[in-house]
């Protein structure tokens, strides 16, 4: 069974985000980038499924400019067998990304599409669901446990009310939540080996995708700051302060 | 004029408290506001939705397959309904709405606006990016429709003094059988629900064990508060996952929030930014939580919290 895993290049989660002073976006120059952490979890899951013999081949896919090759090399170091680079220098919004990924999924005749539940840059949480919709496939979002059997998957999902379990027929789309697994540390030999693995390149046009009208961002601003409050010395002082504000 | 379709999340026939907040956002757009209840028997939830102030009409779509609110089942029905002249399709920013709505948007051919935190006009919205560390103003194309999830922490619930008509309709569309509900393991609790509670008490890694969380529960019960936890406490297995407050857990906006033994990682702070008043109790005076707390108390939580509980 072939598994497709999409990985997105995002500003590293440890970077303190700075909004540009002209409101045109956030500062990305000279900032560290890495693989979207949720996609890394999806990648790890695919590798574990392959180690268990449930998956035979893993294909990593990304959409973006030349620098995204690093992202694919990381995925290859994790254990992807080969990669697909959908080259596009301009910003790609979720529906367009989903159309491109759906095209790759079909082309590869994959059975399983794993990806992160959201990317930590735009926090849209849409792409997986959109791929599933476009291909009329089942979806299991926010997965914290995945079990594969012949022709189907049993997935435990983290929902507001608790843990929901779904049974879905394959092919299917599964989006990874935080607790699905802990991605492994990459070892040098794997990183070296990844350099030799093949990457095929396509454009959106090659995949038959024409971006439609998207959201237009007019301004990016920093969130309102919470000001530092007061430090009280005792429980009695705290109670008095809360009473003073009518909170208790 | 706008005609807004709200997906009325329900469970076991009861309307989710999130819908009153989605209606609040819809009122800022203006126009007709219709709430659609997809359920096995949506009578109870429809009656509740009909009372929400600002709602013009409630549509009740009863179908056995709708029982568990599965995205793959509900989406085709929403898509069919949305084509009937609606300018906007809104859903709550709950796991239900987040799972469902992109599936609808893709079928409609619309780019979705996720996590609307302010309505600036019928097609203009503010939404958070980078875990809320930046706010972007976006203009959504009016056609085919504006499809958006609403960030609950940003809107006040509307009142329930309304009386909109309820119309039972059928949406004739074939439903897939490829997705089957197996079970839901829900945490049953007598305490207020985390996302709608006006007071929340959360514990962090410093609690040290599941057993020690009893000091948190005791304070919460005294305050009639909901109970949350930091990711560290959840990952350490002290409490179940659905209690996690933060960027990857629940984003909440209570009137009063207690962060106890929580250092205040960025990911936790992203979940409590909209809390009206934050109280931090931590033995480390340098903990980042004190940077955002309205009231801070430096001390050992195992002495401070029981003292606070007994004196309230």
- The CATH topology of chain A is Rossmann fold
User: Main β-sheet of chain B: number of strands, strand sense, barrel status?
Assistant: 7 strands, parallel
Number of helices of chain A: 6
The topology string of helices and strands of chain A comes to EEEHEHEHEHEEEEHEEEH
The chain pair with the largest interface is: A-B, 77 and 82 residues
Mean pLDDT of chain B: 96
| Lateral arrangement of strands in the main beta sheet of chain A | 9-8-7-10-6-1-4-5-11
> Strand tally of chain A, please?
13
How many strand elements of chain B? 18
CATH homologous superfamily placement of chain A: HUPs
Structural class of chain B: alpha/beta
At CATH's second level, what is the architecture of chain A?
3-Layer(aba) Sandwich
CATH topology grouping of the largest domain in chain B: Rossmann fold
Order of helices and strands of chain B: EEEHEHEHEHEEEEEEEEHEHEHEHEH
Mean pLDDT of chain A: 96
Helix content, binned percent of chain A? 25-40%
List the helices and strands and how they pair.
The complex is a heterodimer of chains A (248) and B (312).
Chain A: E1 2-6, E2 9-11, E3 33-35, H1 37-51, E4 57-64, H2 68-78, E5 82-87, H3 94-108, E6 112-116, H4 127-134, E7 139-149, E8 152-159, E9 162-169, E10 172-176, H5 188-194, E11 199-203, E12 216-221, E13 230-232, H6 235-244
Helix pairs in contact in A: 2-5, 3-4
Chain B: E1 3-7, E2 10-11, E3 14-15, H1 19-29, E4 32-39, H2 43-51, E5 57-62, H3 71-82, E6 88-92, H4 95-108, E7 112-116, E8 118-121, E9 124-129, E10 134-139, E11 146-150, E12 166-168, E13 179-186, E14 199-203, H5 214-223, E15 226-229, H6 231-235, E16 256-260, H7 266-269, E17 277-282, H8 289-292, E18 295-298, H9 301-311
Parallel strand pairs in B: 1-4, 1-6, 4-5, 5-12, 6-11, 7-11, 14-15, 14-16, 16-17, 17-18
Antiparallel strand pairs in B: 2-3, 8-9, 9-10
């Amino acid at each position: 069974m072939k598994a497709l895993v999409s990985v997105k290049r995002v500003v590293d989660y440890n970077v303190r985000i700075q909004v540009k002073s002209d409101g045109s976006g956030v500062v990305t120059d000279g900032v560290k980038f890495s693989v979207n952490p949720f996609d890394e979890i999806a990648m790890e899951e695919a590798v574990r499924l392959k180690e268990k013999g449930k998956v035979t081949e893993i294909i990593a896919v990304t959409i973006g400019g030349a620098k995204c090759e690093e992202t694919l090399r990381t995925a290859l170091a994790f254990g992807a067998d080969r990669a697909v680079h959908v080259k596009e220098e301009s910003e790609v919004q979720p529906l367009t990304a989903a159309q491109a990924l759906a095209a790759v999924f079909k082309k590869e005749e994959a059975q399983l599409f794993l990806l992160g539940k959201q990317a930590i840059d735009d926090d849209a949480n849409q792409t997986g669901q959109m791929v599933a919709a476009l291909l009329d496939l089942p979806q299991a979002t926010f997965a914290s446990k995945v079990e594969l059997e012949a022709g189907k998957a049993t997935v435990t999902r983290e929902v507001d009310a608790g843990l929901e379990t779904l049974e879905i027929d394959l092919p299917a789309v599964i989006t990874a939540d935080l607790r699905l697994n802990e991605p492994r540390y990459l070892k040098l030999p794997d990183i070296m080996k990844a350099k030799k693995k093949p990457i095929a390149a396509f454009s959106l046009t090659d995949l038959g995708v024409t971006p439609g009208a998207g959201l237009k961002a007019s301004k990016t601003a920093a969130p309102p700051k919470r000001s530092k409050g007061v430090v009280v010395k005792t429980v009695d002082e705290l109670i008095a302060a809360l009473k003073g504000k009518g909170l208790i | 004029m706008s005609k807004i379709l709200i997906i009325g999340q329900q469970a076991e026939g009861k309307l989710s408290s999130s819908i009153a907040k989605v209606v609040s956002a819809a009122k800022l757009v203006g126009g007709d506001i219709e709430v659609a209840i997809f359920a096995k028997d949506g009578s109870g939830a429809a009656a509740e939705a009909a009372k929400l102030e600002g709602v013009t009409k409630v549509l009740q779509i009863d179908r056995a397959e709708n029982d568990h609110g599965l995205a793959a089942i509900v989406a085709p029905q929403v898509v069919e309904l949305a084509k009937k002249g609606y300018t906007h399709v809104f859903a709550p920013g709950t796991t239900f709405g987040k799972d469902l709505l992109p599936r609808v948007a893709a079928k409609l051919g619309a780019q979705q606006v996720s996590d609307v935190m302010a309505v600036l006009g019928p097609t203009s919205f503010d939404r958070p990016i980078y875990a809320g560390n930046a706010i972007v103003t976006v203009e959504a194309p009016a056609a085919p429709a504006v499809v958006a999830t609403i960030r609950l922490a940003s809107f006040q619930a509307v009142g329930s003094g309304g009386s909109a008509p309820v119309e039972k309709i059928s949406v004739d569309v074939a439903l897939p059988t490829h997705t089957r509900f197996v079970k839901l393991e829900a945490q049953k609790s007598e305490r207020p629900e985390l996302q709608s509670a006006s007071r929340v008490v959360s514990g962090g890694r410093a609690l040290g064990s599941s057993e020690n969380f009893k000091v948190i529960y005791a304070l919460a019960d005294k305050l009639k508060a909901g109970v949350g936890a930091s990711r560290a406490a959840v990952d350490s297995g002290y409490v179940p996952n659905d209690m996690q407050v933060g960027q990857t857990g629940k984003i909440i906006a209570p009137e009063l929030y207690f962060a106890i033994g929580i250092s205040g990682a960025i990911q936790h702070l992203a979940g409590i930014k909209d809390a009206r008043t934050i109280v931090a109790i931590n033995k480390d005076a340098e903990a980042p939580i004190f940077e955002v707390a309205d009231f801070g108390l430096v001390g050992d939580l195992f002495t401070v919290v029981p003292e606070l509980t007994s004196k309230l």
